[in-house]
Specification:
Length: about 70
């Protein structure tokens, strides 16, 4: 089962005060941002900054998480 909320840059969560600091963006958000950057950097592709492009970036991120889960077993 994939975990879409897995942190991209996990850190120890015990700061000694009982408070839990934020872990930042999820791994899915990180993957989507990387996919979006690559998509928009392609000069010969019809990508434009819009909702459909963002949705495609998240779909790519989901596939990356699926592939990562399959490899990790």
């Amino acid at each position: 089962m994939k975990n879409l909320d897995e942190p991209a840059f996990p850190q120890a969560m015990d700061d000694g005060t009982g408070c839990k600091p934020s872990v930042g963006m999820s791994l899915r958000d990180w993957f989507a941002g990387q996919a979006l950057s690559a998509m928009l950097a392609q000069p010969n592709q019809p990508w434009v900054p819009c909702r459909a492009t963002a949705d495609e970036a998240y779909q790519i991120a989901n596939w990356m998480i699926d592939a990562r889960t399959e490899v990790k077993g």
